[in-house]
Task: structure prediction
Amino acid sequence: MRILVVDDENLLADAIAEWLRREAFAVDVAYDGDAALERLGVNDYDVVVLDRDLPVVHGDDVCRAIVESEVPTRVLMLTAAAGVRERVTGLNLGADDYLAKPFAFVELSARVHALGRRTRKAAPPVLARAGIRLDPARREVYRDGRFVPLANKEFAVLAELLRAEGGIVSAEQLLEKAWDEHIDPFTNVVRVTVMKLRRKLGEPQLVQTVPGVGYRLP
Result:
């Protein structure tokens, strides 16, 4: 899934992004509301982790813009104000979830996982197909009961293929969901990652190439 982290505390924003990348998310970062709106106008995000007290454009206005755009992006609002009134106000603005600072990173990632499932057709917590079981929360993959250790991008690509439920996923879609905005759109990183994924999953090969279209699982 692709995540946008928006917080004017640069160190905190970068720390959140690094934590989520370890969870195999593709993460972009913005340090003010205007930069957030600019990225939202260009990229499709599954979840926005949004600080409420932002400079230039307030977090409330960013949240309103997301809601008014009617995109399926979910908003996890962050704030130092932990009172009931503040939480209710944030949710009434259209935020899907609310987390007060300071928070535990493990709770943050759990909430992002939960919101990400709501941006798509309802999916089970554990994804399974063709003998593969992928647990996003535990970050574990098994094939026919055998544990398969995967790098972050391999894990993210496999998760997207499983969520497609046998449908074809293009290289462009995989770049959108598994890498951040700094990736070269002409790179062959998807092909290389799929090659490594096939090798780790073992024989018989499961990830099928549909020439000129993309990849799929049977």
User: Anything to note?
Assistant: Residues 105-118 form the longest helix (14 residues). Residues 127-216 form a domain with the Arc Repressor Mutant, subunit A fold (CATH 1.10.10.10). The first strand starts at residue 2 and ends at 6. The chain is about 40% helix and 20% strand.
